[in-house]
Amino acid sequence: MEIRYDVEVDARGLQCPMPIVNARKTFQTLQPGQTLRVLATDPGSVNDFKGWANMVADAELVAQETIEMDGKTVYVHYVRKK
Amino acid sequence: MNGQAVVDRAPTADLSALEAQIQQLQAQVDALRAQAPDNRLSMVVFSGDLDRVLAAFVIASGAAASGMEVSMFFTFWGLTALRQKRESRGKTLFQKLMGWMTPVGLRGLGVSKMNFGGVGAKMLRTMMRQQGVPQPEEMAQMARDLGVRIVACQMSMDVMGIHKEELIDGVEVGGVATFLGDATRSKATLFI
Fold it and tell me: At the topology level of CATH, where does B39-191 sit?
């Protein structure tokens, strides 16, 4: 899957609630229309980003994918600022 | 032809009735809006157990990171999590005893199960570190950086003889009405 993104947050190795906390910090700096990509190794982040995007009014979860990176399963989340 | 007929059948009396109805509906919408909860989470932190307080800070941080306003009301044993020092001056004998027998800050809290005199808490901290989970102190700092409102219960402080100077900086002091004021306009309320 090839999805365009503007900024990336690497939350690999971090546990709940750090992926969304770190995503939030960077998301706030985005301009409308920009997309944030978050890398996480926490399997719970798949549901967490769904819930997070539901709560944050100007966030839209564009896509989620699971990839293999450096021998680890990485959950990738794309969030667009409306 | 048809349009003409409609205009003919719309006397001013009907229009003003319609306007009155709109005004009435507008008032109802305003009233509903005033009652609608804020995007807020309110928590009572009654427990002084490390694991429970940790859960409270995780939820607080997650909610704040999701754009919610968060209020945490620390009462009774929960107050021990906010202490930064022990002070005995100006306290009754029982208050002094209470002060000496209760932990000072997150560092001193034990876990609710398998604490074994603090060994359990140390073990939990190590296990958290091994899993990349922030320590309770970092979690609390993060919650505060995210703008979580922290209120200490005045009545518990008075009973237990805890002075505001013994608590960490930036803590507000309030009573039940402070909690209810926030809780009644919250989407979610938790007692921990």
Answer: Hypothetical Protein Ychn; Chain: A, (3.40.1260)
Give the mutation candidate from B39, B57, B59, B66 for the A interface (greatest A CB count, under 10 A): B66
Q: What is the DSSP letter of B83?
A: B
Q: What is the ipTM of this complex?
A: 0.81
Helices (H) and strands (E) in chain A, counts: 2, 4
Read off the pLDDT of each residue in A40-69 and give the average, rounded to a whole number: 93
Integer angstrom CA distances of residue B109 from A19, A64, B124: 26, 39, 12
- CATH classification number, A7-81, choose in 3.40.50.720, 3.40.30.10, 3.30.110.40, 3.40.50.450: 3.30.110.40
Catalytic residue among A3, A16, A21, A67: A16
pTM of the model: 0.83
